[in-house]
């Protein structure tokens, strides 16, 4: 399960493969009824008791088992729909399947970052999502919206949080409640280092890919991203300079532990009290639950610091949605399955609530459907490995503060060769923040954006 989870989380922001020419839809007749009959708008079934068979693709592993467990609940509501739930290496198989139009599934679990690259092959879900649109987290709706169409049923919301070793901070006389801004975090790190000589309190990500993903979390908090809604590059900006300056300050003052996410070195530095602040997505909660055996129970989570006093205390880091290919034979019935999972209380309670796979609940994310992410109605239990903390309350409050977003461009993964690597060069002390932005912008524009 660990290997699957780490792999799944590492690819959450892998950019979509460039889509080939749009496929002609030859699935069910569920168009909008225009004269051409070629609309991409999906319509829900109209039968009182819909019947048929659907094929749903998910990755193997923990979430596959979670979704598998919800099928019986779905069939209680829709007994006439048979669900063929198939574990698939989606990254390896989906593109060729859509291009050839052979054995196309009715629904697919897909990283948000890949939806833009596959949109030509997918149903526009604007009409079926309309009743729920006002209650979906704006960031999730935005990343699924391309040229006015909505191409994914939003699944999880992955708010950024500041995880911290409460036991170590208390011993050093540091009150985490006083950390309200990133300037406060820097000062807390300085104070901790003074109390614990030789420590490097703040995590600095050493993976080029995950470093770029974390950078996008910080940018999301400031209401921006590497590309705008039209896919235009917007990297060389005051917002990104501010983020890089913060990271460079952590480096230059020796306040950061440089390590790759949850590698043995990273875990060792977390366990020994050297690294006590970890700004990351909610899915870091897996670490104290499964990996940090010596300091389990010492860790807590809080909202990210704000860039400015009173500003947003979270940003999005990763995420996935469900898409419905045009060539799927029964995409309209697959919509009913996803509607049940995400918008029906019985469905989303079964997904995020305690189950055989996650006895305390699916604590590595929260629902993107706001009525399901009610702070007063937790779907999962307090986490023993976080000292009994109610992570649900922290995460839902943080999630509510995430600004809107934009679709991830198809060239995002390719940008790691420039921005991700240049960020690491900055953390090596070889580039300034301004040089990272200027050089990466030129390289991405020339080698990726202009060649689309």
Structural notes for this entry:
With 452 residues, the chain is α/β, with parallel strands linked by helices. 39% of the residues lie in helices and 13% in strands. It is built from 17 helices and 14 strands. The strands form 5 sheets. A 5-stranded mixed beta sheet has the order 2-1-3-13-6. A 3-stranded antiparallel beta sheet has the order 11-8-12. The longest helix has 17 residues, at 433-449.
List keywords for this structure.
disordered N terminus, alpha/beta, 13% strand, 452 residues, 17 helices
TL;DR of this structure?
This protein is an alpha/beta fold. The chain has helices at 2-10, 62-77, 90-100, 112-118, 126-129, 138-143, 166-171, 182-195, 208-221, 238-252, 264-271, 286-290, 331-343, 345-352, 391-399, 412-427, 433-449, and strands at residues 52-58, 81-87, 107-111, 145-146, 149-150, 153-154, 156-157, 160-165, 202-205, 256-259, 277-281, 299-303, 320-323, 366-367. Helix 2 links the parallel strand 1 and strand 2.
